[in-house]
Amino acid sequence: MSTIKILSWNVNGIRAAHRKGFMNWLDEYNPDIICIQETKAQVAQIPEEIANTGSYDTYWAQAEKRGYSGVGIMSKIESGNVWRGMGSEMLDNEGRILFADFGDFILGSVYFPNGKASKERLKYKMTFYEKFLEYIDALKSKGRNIIICGDVNTAHKEIDLSNPKANEKTSGFLPIERAWIDKLIEHGFIDTFRIFNQKPNNYSWWDLRTRARERNVGWRLDYFFVDEDFITKVKDGFILHEVMGSDHCPVGIELEM
Predict the structure, then answer these.
(1) Which residues pair with 234 in a beta bridge?
(2) Which of 31, 131, 154, 192 is least surrounded by CB atoms within 10 angstroms?
(3) Is the pLDDT of residue 82 over 90?
């Protein structure tokens, strides 16, 4: 048996995270794999110290728009195949998806769209949600074990945000967005954190403008979903509340293989 620790973190800018000590944090927590969201950088702009650590193989997906979106995977475990997106020109140009095949499982680092800006962006988010579920359903139907992690940009249940009643009409807690997570779970993908922790006040994002983190007024927007056939391999699911450096904190799982 071997233990594999996988973390996921929306860093809100990989260059900013680097300036705030990302490499020191990485050395301290020492994950086998870390998935990164919202790099806000073209691949050529990833700090050299992160792109070429010597310890991790690194893979990146960039948005066509500079300084926007972007995801990455850094792994000490060799992957036989890494690919970007879902094969949809309309949905892949923002650099939101990166998949890596590790043999025993396929891992996806995903930065799901935010729907707050406009009705059009909410529509884009819901289209992205539906197409993404179709895509991972197809992978699962081939008998593959799937792990999906990242910033889902929706709090699933009332327990997952500080002020549910006040946010019922806010994107990130709309009924249609929450219903998609219900659908994801119905399709056999399990929210790993809630297996191990049913307590309230566990969040992964806080509004920086209102200094909400100091009061723990937050939202749980970052998740690990694992397909039901693979869930017996998951031995822990957690949120690293203490880690600073972004408006999000890392989340993670441990596997026993």
Answers:
(1) 255
(2) 131
(3) yes
151 is catalytic: yes
CB burial class (10 A; 0-12, 13-18, 19+) of residue 142? Answer: exposed
- Say if residue 175's pLDDT is above 90: yes
CA–CA dist 164, 101 (Å, integer): 37
Helices 175-186 and 119-141 pack at an angle, to 10 degrees, of: 0
Distances (CA, A) of 224 to 10, 46, 169: 13, 25, 25
Say whether pTM exceeds 0.70. Answer: yes
User: Alpha helices of 30-106 — where are they, by DSSP H?
Assistant: 48-51, 89-92
Token digits for 17?
């995270």
Contact status, residue 189 vs residue 148, Cβ threshold 8 Å: yes
- Per DSSP, the three-state class of 169 is coil
Residue 1 has pLDDT above 90, yes or no: no
Q: State mean pLDDT over 91-117.
A: 97
Domains in the chain with CATH codes: 3-256 (3.60.10.10)
Which of 32, 92, 104, 151 is flagged as catalytic?
A: 151
Radius of gyration of the chain (CA): 17
